[in-house]
UniProtKB/TrEMBL annotation:
This is 1-acyl-sn-glycerol-3-phosphate acyltransferase. It catalyses: a 1-acyl-sn-glycero-3-phosphate + an acyl-CoA = a 1,2-diacyl-sn-glycero-3-phosphate + CoA. It is an enzyme of class 2 (transferase). Keywords: Acyltransferase, Lipid biosynthesis, Lipid metabolism, Phospholipid biosynthesis, Phospholipid metabolism, Transferase. Belongs to the 1-acyl-sn-glycerol-3-phosphate acyltransferase family. It holds the Pfam family Acyltransferase. InterPro entries: AGP_acyltrans, Plipid/glycerol_acylTrfase. The keyword Lipid biosynthesis applies. Coiled coil: none annotated. PANTHER family: 1-ACYL-SN-GLYCEROL-3-PHOSPHATE ACYLTRANSFERASE. It comes from Pseudomonas wadenswilerensis. Pathway: Lipid metabolism; Phospholipid metabolism; CDP-diacylglycerol biosynthesis; CDP-diacylglycerol from sn-glycerol 3-phosphate: step 2/3. The lineage of its organism: Bacteria, Pseudomonadati, Pseudomonadota, Gammaproteobacteria, Pseudomonadales.
Amino acid sequence: MLFIIRMFLLGLHFLLAGVLGVLVGLCRPFNPDNSRICARLYGLPATWLMRLEIKAEVGPLFDQPPGCVIIANHQSNYDLFVLGHVVPRRTVCIGKKSLKWVPLFGQLFWLGGNVLVDRGNAYQARRAMQTTTRTLSEDDTSIWVFPEGTRNAGEHLITFKKGAFHMAVEAGVPIVPVCVSRYASRLKLNGWRRSKVIIRSLAPIATSGLTQQDVPALAEQCRLQMQHCIDRMEGELAQA
């Protein structure tokens, strides 16, 4: 019964936050800071409803000026709510083109200046990536990417796709890893007990001087650092 009530309230919240987000987007269309505002609209009430206690340790992320590539692990659709707490200013995201058909959220995503990519069309995907690279280097805007490319609630990060790293190297901007503890496997929407989630950002990784040949090693370096951080956070939660 509690699960049904909670899902109803989350659905209602999703619609209300979507309406407010679209209004924000219409008032200042394609402003890259819209995503941060909308992320808070979605994230703060939703994690309260889900009984998630967010512990954010993201000093390196907030200290980094706009104009970087932010990479994070992707566990579930609830990441929208969890990571909404820590989206920094002037940050946009790369998403599937099909997102634009999601009522309210799709329009909000588009008006927020986020990048929609048609993964089935190689030419259009390359054009979108070129535009994103210019955004990084010229518009003081950061790009948020989930380099695993799919949801993964397992214990081990899967091999990172290289697109985000190619963008960072080409634009010569740093990469900021953001790690989230494995909350998806512990999420109990049918209970009252509060679950703690740790979000921790790592020190920026410079890409200046690197070439496209360095991308595979760079991607693996980031994956290993994030895996180590997630494992460490899990150990801290187990001892709490």
